[in-house]
Amino acid sequence: MKLHELSPVAGSTFEGKRKGRGHGSGNGKTGGRGHKGQKARSGGKVRAGFEGGQMPLARRIPKRGFNNIYAKPLTAINLAVLNRFEDGAVVDAAALIEAGIIASCPYGLKVLSNGTLTKNITVKAAAFSESAKEKIEQAGGKAEVV
């Protein structure tokens, strides 16, 4: 095989549409832009979210409270799911991911008190609700903040 014999795989390349090359091409005259209007002009683009001068949706909808764009939300789990582990187990984010209870935990784990805990386990998390901490200690386990 020589260099001049190389060619791309059939169907992997295509010829671009040649705009404005006569009415027989199907893309002549206005070049597929239609007649007049802002989008028919050269440089005629509108920014994302622009609604032709109408008050944009993002400004029409009422805003409430403070939304911290830098917040790192904790992954919440309930006490009831911790009953899957054996007595004496150490449960942290890695153990929960391995057990398939949560998919990921990018910013930390918070344990909430929904349900009851019957096992004596050590739970390591970034945060606990007060009632969750009490329930873990009543079952004989430990709640460690990491």
| Main β sheet profile | 3 strands, parallel
User: How would you spell out the order of helices and strands?
Assistant: HEEHEEEHE
CATH class of one domain: Alpha Beta
C-alpha termini separation: 64 Å
Shape: elongated
Task: Indicate the proportion of strand residues.
Answer: 5-15%
CATH topology of one domain: Ribosomal Protein L15, Chain: K, domain 2
Mean pLDDT: 94
User: From the helix content, strand content and strand pairing, which structural class follows?
Assistant: alpha/beta
The rounded Rg comes to 31 Å
Which residues form runs of ≥5 with pLDDT under 50?
none
Helical fraction: 10-25%
Description:
By secondary structure, this protein is an alpha/beta fold. The chain has a domain at 75-145: Ribosomal Protein L15, Chain: K, domain 2, CATH 3.100.10.10. 14% of the residues lie in helices and 14% in strands. It is built from three helices and six strands. The chain has a three-stranded parallel beta sheet. Strands 2-4-6 form a three-stranded parallel beta sheet. The mean pLDDT is 94.
